Amino acid sequence: MSKKEHVNRRDFLRTISLSGAGLYLVGCTQKPKQPLPTPLAEVEKQATSVSGQETAKETSPTDEKPSYGDVYISVIRGEDPGEMARRAVAALGGIERFVSSGANVIIKPNICTDYYSYEYGATTNPEVVAALVSLCLGAGARRVRVMDNPFGGTAKSAYQKSGIKGAVSAVGGEMEVMNSNKFRSNEIPDGVDIKDWKFYQDILDADVVINVPIAKHHGTTGLTLGCKNMMGTILNRGQIHSNIDQRIADLVSRVRPALTVVDGVRTLMHNGPTGGNLNDVKMSNTVIASADVVAADSYAATLFDKTGSDIGYIRAAANMGLGTLDLGFIKIEELSL
Q: For the segment 263-301, what is each residue's pLDDT rounded down to a tens digit?
């Protein structure tokens, strides 16, 4: 392949990836119905002619371009978690790209246990959650609820201990204790290993689901990030641990959050998921946002000197076409406050 052909092909691959991202974001004003951005494996196929020779697709200046800009992942660094979250969403085109007036919004943080406050790095930062609640309400959302299904202690005490209840209430959001009667069996049409599971029905019925994990170590999966945070939407989580990587990806295929905002402010580097020692916590002071949970997780893995390919459930989700694993062909906007 000549140098010119190589450059053209890279430009083509990047154009296809970014165009897919734009279509997906525009479709996220309600519960997403548009397909996720084209997986890079498919992009590679589009770059190859029938004869097997690599070709470059010529683009016209009149080709439709994403209306929100071409930022696929935003990465904000600073010392004000709430402002970092606001700026991360703004860089993607603003909360209005995801939440429309009258929308029923559910925000799903990681409220792991009632053992410790958020300072220990096992629970999503309250300021990040509150900032997202405030943005949604400002966009005219009819209802904004925050919820999780802690595995340690009661939900009521975990909400309080984490600091999330106070922060959410202060900006006008609702904390909902997930009622066991609302978990119902649902099919997982795209599931590879599991074809149905009991999900919290309100989450599946919401217009918009915003996924707000904390980035932390996990003894079984390596890391807890956005895809794994979907385990809090189901019952019988213990059974997910059989073939856990694929089963997490299967859950993501059913819930499909419209927006993922990764709290990388205080990262639990060791002894996750519950932690308990402040010496295991690193001040990474980073917030990552994307409409693509796989891409967000892939970038978040770098906070631990890993890549998305190092984490089994991220690979599995990418293999299912649920998002982009390779960050080389997408635009990442990074900003320090």
A: 999 999 999 888 899 999 999 999 999 999 999 999 999
For residue 260, give its domain range: 73-336
- Specify if 166 maps to a domain: yes
CA angle in degrees (0–180, nearest 5) for 308-234-163: 80
| Residues of the chain predicted below pLDDT 70 | 1-69
Task: Check which CATH number belongs to the domain holding 329 and give it.
Answer: 3.40.50.11440
Q: Contact at 8 Å (CB) between 218 and 312?
A: no
Q: Which residue, 70, 73, 67, 125, is CA-closest to 96?
A: 67
Q: How many domains does the chain fold into? A: 1
State residue 70's pLDDT score: 80
Hunting for tokens 């385990």 — which residue is that? 231
Q: How many residues does the chain have?
A: 337
Query: d(Cα 13, Cα 328) in Å, to the nearest integer?
Result: 10
How many Cβ atoms are within 10 Å of 324's Cβ, its own excluded?
Answer: 28
Please check whether residue 64 lies inside any domain of the structure: no
